[in-house]
Amino acid sequence: MRLLLGALFLLAAPCAAQQSVDFGTAFGPDAFGARGGVERATAAPVGLALALSYDATTWLRVGISTTSPSGDLEPLVARGFYRLELCQLVRLAEGGGKTLSYLAGRREKGAALRALAGELALDFDKSYDAAREDDRRVLERLRSLQSVEPLPPPGGRP
After folding, report:
1. Alpha-carbon Rg of the chain, whole angstroms?
2. How far is CA 69 from the centre of its chain?
3. Which pLDDT does position 70 carry in this prediction?
4. pLDDT tens digits for 109-125?
5. Which H, E and C letters describe the chain, residue by residue?
6. Which site from 31, 49, 62, 134 is most exposed, i.e. has the minimal number of CB atoms within 10 Å?
7. DSSP secondary structure string, 9-26?
8. Using 50, 70 and 90 to split pLDDT, how confident is the model at 155?
């Protein structure tokens, strides 16, 4: 009998905790809203411009998140990869069936882009020309992102 009562007592504890959530004692992601002044991180402009310049199929082929490609690209930008270099790596990864992170790692270890193209049996000059066109598109997107005025801070105070 004591064992049964002990088991019921242990099972009742999670139920009591669930009731406290029903009474509104939990905090959600919007609990601090505009009044609390909590700022959310924004995407870096170069990472965002790169993310918007390719379609989801390209990101899927090169192993980048299709829901938030800028989140996967920002660390590469922060580690010192240039726009054109990233465009070249995207083209090489897509054409060679490798992931962008794999090729970026090889590049950080000193592999030349021409050598990577050779290993993937791709024509470097064609991929370079395509990457330059992509870089032009990224630069246009970057300029359009920078011309947009930022939203005022929460609460309407500048």
Report:
1. 24
2. 4
3. 86
4. 999 999 999 999 999 99
5. CHHHHHHHHHHHHHHHHHHHHHCCCCCCCCCCHHHHCCCCCCCCHHHHHHHHHCCHHHHHHCCCCCCCHHHHHHHHHHCCCCHHHHHHHHHHHHHHCCCHHHHHHHHHCCCCHHHHHHHCCCCHHHHHHHHHHHHHHHHHHHHHHHHCCCCCCCCCCC
6. 31
7. HHHHHHHHHHHHHHTT-S
8. low
